[in-house]
Amino acid sequence: MSVPRRFLTSDKGTFGAFTAEERWPIICQNAVDDIKTEVEELKKAGATQEVISEGLVLEKELAELREEILKNTELRAFTEEEIKIANVPGSFNEYLKESSAINRSWANAEWLFAEVYLYRRINVLFMSKKAEYWQKFDIFDRLKQATFKSSLYGVVELAHRYKNLREQLKTLDVNKESDLEILQILFKEFIEVSLWGNATDLSLLTNITLEDIKSIQGAKAREESEAKIVVNDTDKAWESLLNSTKQSKRVDFVLDNSGFELYADLMLAAFLIESKLASKCIFHAKDMPYMVSDVMLKDYDALVKDLEDREFFPVAVGSEDDSSLNLFASELSNFVKNGSLELRTDSFWTTHLDYWAIDPSETKYHGAEIHKDLMNSDLVIFKGDLNYRKLAGDRQWPRTTDWDVAIGPLAHNGVVSLSLRTCKADVQVALPDGLDEKLCKEWEKDHPGQGSWWCSSGKWAVICFSSGN
Q1: Distance CA 277, CA 173 (A)
Q2: What span, in angstroms and rounded, lies between the C-alpha atoms of 242 and 173?
Q3: How confident is the model at residue 235 (pLDDT cuts 50, 70, 90)?
């Protein structure tokens, strides 16, 4: 099969075109509004004139970037000064040079490149300021924190779930067949919690005991939760992890969103560590504010503090809620201290390069280094929609294309991978014959002219596994 082209922002009727025309200007305007708010707060707090003046400049520059998008200007190369001050990888200008024969504008470019390029342009504006305050400022932090704060109910429910299971997990033995069945069920549940993030069906998270897990009621809840997962390779991932011959097993997470989704990812990691299915989990975060809500290293630190802060999560001190939140925060800190949980970052994750570049042949922009590192992992979990797009190259594959075809070199270069994705973009593969047509027809009923957008709606999900062999 020939490799199809990537989705363009000029592909009419696609979610990518909608993103470029509607969502990017809104993201920039929200950034302008947040800077206005920040500057006013800085004035009240008695900040230096330099910080305030540079904040006003940022407000103006972000507004100008928004105008660029609205006017559909050509995507310009980064200047030498910008590259130096913001550590912009050379892959961006190389791409623009290679495609210079075609007018690459905001509304006529490969969607994946233009979207990643947008966040690099935003980051350059902040890194170009003299004040350290703005260089370290996350323009999306206010939204990240507000979103996580609004997730109080789900956060508390998950904390209870962990507290109730924690001691019971220590009694299970992966070498006992009866215990193994329970662990497999829990593995599926925590995978789904990580998959759906804020959309998690909390009926899965009731305060049940291990004895209740195999009940008819529990099985029914799981069956209902799996109905919207149109590709589900969880069992393959389970078998692969279980059958790994390594004495110390490592699971990697290439992260997506901060807040509740990161919290859910940490729950999955805690389960893997406590159940001894993994001895170490490594979280790979972004090195700059990215895609609005993506995880940076500082977002993990903020999450742990939020769990312990009764102003942020207002539960009664001394209550069961308080105890559960504090316990999980403490456990995370202990995991980091004893080395069973590690957080890393690398500029590779914020380049426009897709994950076909995670290969020994990609020696320029850390692709070979990332590959070498991930070869030490027993399972690499790629979280979220953007990671799925990068795995499949964001290409116009027929939707029945095999997963191992769509992910290119990663299907055979030794990396064992699992993609957990709620569907929020045009690219979609690995579907059985006839399912896309069925879902398009179903979505079309309530969304005339947008039937194919079912896979951009966030209402369905996929769990795709590759053995790397």
Answers
A1: 10
A2: 12
A3: very high
CB of 106 closer than 8 Å to CB of 72: yes
**Side chain identity, residue 22:** E
Q: What is the CA 61 to chain-centroid distance, rounded?
A: 28
For the chain, helix, strand, coil in percent to 5 are 55, 10, 35
Q: Which of 93, 147, 100, 99 is nearest to 120 (CA)?
A: 93
Lowest mean pLDDT: which of 6-10, 103-107, 126-130, 250-254?
103-107
What 136-142 contacts at long range (C-beta under 8 Å, 24+ apart), as own/partner pairs, is 137/38, 138/289, 138/296, 138/298, 139/31, 139/34, 139/35, 139/289, 140/31, 140/289, 140/292, 140/293, 141/289, 141/302, 142/34, 142/37, 142/38
Is residue 324 within 8 A of residue 314, CB to CB? The reply is no
Do 421 and 384 contact (CB within 8 A), yes or no? yes
Q: Which residues of 252-269 are buried (b: 16+ CB within 10 A; e: fewer)?
A: bbbbbbbbbbbbbbbbbb
Q: Which pLDDT does position 30 carry in this prediction?
A: 97
Tokens of residue 452, six digits: 């194919």
pTM above 0.90, yes or no: yes
Q: Is the pLDDT of residue 200 over 60?
A: no
